[in-house]
Task: structure prediction
Amino acid sequence: MQTSGKIDPITLAVVRGALETAQREMTLTLEKTGRSSVFNLAHDYSNALFDHHPEMILQGQDIPIHLGSLIPAMKAVAEYFGDDIHEGDVIYHNDPAYKGSHILDCCMYKPVFYHGELVFWAVCKGHLTDIGGPVPAGYNPAATEIYAEGLRIPPVKLWDQGRRREDVVNLLLTNMRARRDQEGDLNAQFGACRVGERNLIALLDKYGVATVRAAIAELKDMADRHMRTLIRSIPDGEYAGEAVLEDAGHGHGELTIRTKVTVKDDQVHIQVQSPPQVPYFINSYAGNSMSGIYLGLMMFAQVPPPYNEGLYRCVTVDLGPEGTLCNAKEPAPHVNCTTTPMETLTDAVRKAFEAAAPDRVTASWGHASGVNIAGIDPRTGEQYVTMVLASIISGAGATREMDGWHACGPLCCFGALSSGDIELLEYAYPIVIHRYGLSTDSGGAGQMRGGSGTVWEVEPLGHEMTVIAFGEGRQIPTMGASGARDVMIEPKLGRLEVDGEDARIYRQNTITTIKQGERARNINPGGGGFGHPFKRPVDAVVNDVRNGLVSREAARIEYGVVLKDNSLIVDLAQTEQLRAVCC
Result:
């Protein structure tokens, strides 16, 4: 039994492994028991473990937009209940006024007691497919205040000392569409927290509270050392970055988010300057904005695990005054905030750090530009609603050493999101998916090409279907790096296209109806390129054309590679002439 404040390396490794196993089993529980496609196919959820302080001691390899906001949210929930926290309690919460991300991301907190003492918290956040309000799936582009977006849940107990509060649970579910899905996902979250609790208690049974706490303290110190070592490698000074949030067609115009990073020794201060909040659902409250900042930092830092709250001891943040886009206050509408402006804020933070260390520059990932669908299932007569996570899969950004990964984004999820099997989506909902594949010319042009985004094309079967488009990347292409440039802008941009009697194209957040026989096609942006595209090897460009990633026209215009007739044979004379401009 460990009794001192020190921990031996073997015990430390075993405790660390047990904590990681506890978190992974929580994730598997959600995957296997979640009711909605957002849970069981797309995996739009995250799990973390906190100690009694409460500080995050372990985060999963989950959704970044969830994980960063869990740190302030956990503290807000614990502070709200104070001493009124007991064994058997389970708390639920989604309200951004209490540091939540957005109201569709509902979080469950289970305090873990051992011999009467609070030792841990098992925490599970998941995106519910509906949260009530006037628009199915919660994304209401017409909302001018938060009250028009759905059900706000301040910290509330769903289980009180082991007793399920049926009145509270019924109140929540009564205000949500597709109740069966929401109840199933809530039960899955409860199961995940119970699994986490079971494993944590087993760990305490084996090693005792003192040893486990000593191990956790060392893991947090380890993360702190990793981050401080990186910060010390950056020259002291002030560094600026900015990114533009596009006009989504609702009159706010383009909005620029600016950041300033101040480095001194092993400390870093991040200051955000954003425009005043707008009467539109792209405002971000403080908890969500912290996720954007932490993701921008971690994209730059790329420090090794462990990943816990120790990473941020040397980081201070100023979000700017309340009432601004990145530090919104009630009653600002906000539901789109986990994609926009979070991804724009992430880019601005990352660019500021890259100004300090240009050798670590990377291109941005594609921003989320997706759809939700809803309707009455003609097979059952029941209402269905879901966020189609497959529709927001964009491309990853290129780096100095490699092309961006295809179909890996969007930036806010950073590879943690899954499309799921198309056949399972068609089984669950009255739809047929005609196409799901990579989008030609969507990847940013560069010496290293950005990863391709996706095309998702759907047709409703036997009914009219509501389609809600949200996000950005439809007017401004993904940011490249180190001389990358995009000449053929149109294919790089996201958009929603509807084919049928009333063919139309949407480049803004909107709600539309798709009739039987019509098709809706959502096109995602790709990742940004790295380096000047004329420096890309000719053979690599030809291979991209062969694989349908780059069109013949783009090969000529963007990469300076001319192909003869309809073949893949390079016209060397014209290619050399075009490329002479750059190289």
